[in-house]
Structure prediction request, 586 residues.
Amino acid sequence: MAQKKLNWQEFFIPRLIKASGYSAILFVALIFFFLLREGLPALTEVKLGDLFAVRWYPIESHFGILPLITGSLIVTLGAMLIAIPFGIGTAVFMSEIAPRWLREILKPLVELLGGLPSVVLGFLGILVLSPYLRVFLDLPTGLTALAGALLLGGIAVPTIVSIAEDALDAVPYSYREGAWAMGATRWQTIWRVTLPAARSGVLTAIMLGVGRTIGETMAVMMVTGNAPVLAIALTSLFHPVRTMTATIAAEMGEVANGSVHYHVLFFIGLVLFLISLVVNVTASSVVFKSKKRAERVLS
Amino acid sequence: MKRASFSNRDLVQRLGFSLLTLVALVTVVPILVVIAYVVKEGAPAISWEFLTAMPRDGMRAGGILPAIVGTFYLTLGTAVFSVPLGIAAAIYLSEYARDNWLTRLIRIAIINLAGIPSVVYGLFGLGLFVLFLEFGTSILAASLTLSIMTLPVIISASEEALRAVPQAFRTVSISLGGTRWQTIRKIVLPQALPGILTGVILGLERAAGETAPILFTGAAFFLPRLPGTPLDATMALPYHLFVISTQVPEMPFQIQYGTALVLIAFVLGMNIIATVIRSRARAKRQW
Prediction:
């Protein structure tokens, strides 16, 4: 009897496990399929020229998504201007400069930031950050692309720090010793040896940070003022904008299923999906390649 | 001359290190300030009534019980689907999968799942679970949506924990006549359990704090009573905070900060539990 039960387990469980392993592929395919199914009709219902136009005003059937794309881009650009120097700087500090005990304190703190729900940051953005920006920069409203960029910079930092720090850690200690032995200071070693050796990992960190930023929804919806205007100049940072993600989140709840507006929102989702696909496949291929190189060097 | 250039280098190094220290401080200190600020502003709102009563006066008074209960249900629902599936997938990748193109495809799929914007998960959940499978806006649809979003976190962390178990453990078990599944169940899984648990909690923490995926799949603006079945919509802490900070005029600040505090406590509580499990397991580990 026990033997029989064992056989049963040995037969089914590995198959179940295998199916679970494949499930990730299934889910990505399903997500893609449903975005296509609900989003592609937008291309037949709205002329391509009208879709990539500069006016987003769904009530009067203006479905130009360019302002939303530029809104996402300017907020992401601003966020990266903050998150890249601070993220990489913090990673270098933690990995190369800080004593061990300090590192053990900093690491969980950065993870803590990664765990804070974005809706809480958005909430503080409304109540604290944007009034401050309004007074400090003398703007008509503090709910601007800049407020979004500041919050998103904070949201991207943990992603960048943890991946960049891993990459720096992975640089063999002997590289540093070699540089020191030749008389380089620790500072010179960091810039001319360690960081260049970790560059593919650092690049991955930045790319995944960008991906995280473009996809962020709640914080950005709450603080950017939600005005779908074209943002092509750097001064747009000081005006309200509206991102792709915020548009979906703000409007999907109010549209009729199957309407043109509904399909266009899914189409925007499809664009976001494709952006994240490109970012992640590129980032992961960088990782695979550098892994292969590392294996070659080490073997 | 040589001397001067040496001290120059030292000066550059000293300045550089100071700059990087400052950068790290500017990155980390605001995190503490944010949490301390929410605690300070929110603490006066916390009372027994706030935690256990229904909202009153258009949510401007009373408690936030339905939002707390809702977030609890959603987290539980997410765990029901994502934990078994995620651990099984991790076992496949760590114990069964060979290094071929199909395995690489699985890994790319997992990386992509981790990168898909949360609001796109919301759209997908609306398309598949709410409309196509006709679950309606419900705890079930929202939990399933959150599960798929959580999956990559659980898979990656669990796989790492499984791979950390020394190969010798498996070899010994097999050589004693254990089958592959017996080896996994009796030897590998127990050893990897703390690491898996940490990953599971961190994944669920993310699900508990998310708003965008539940916006159109299960979140309700206001409900006069607690949800009774998985097919009911539900209030949830993150969505409630969004609602009372943007959609309800003349909302008392205290209730807003109180809600933010409860949400942070819920999420960071999970984070701390995960950290404790991880460090305890590291201290106890003998290999």
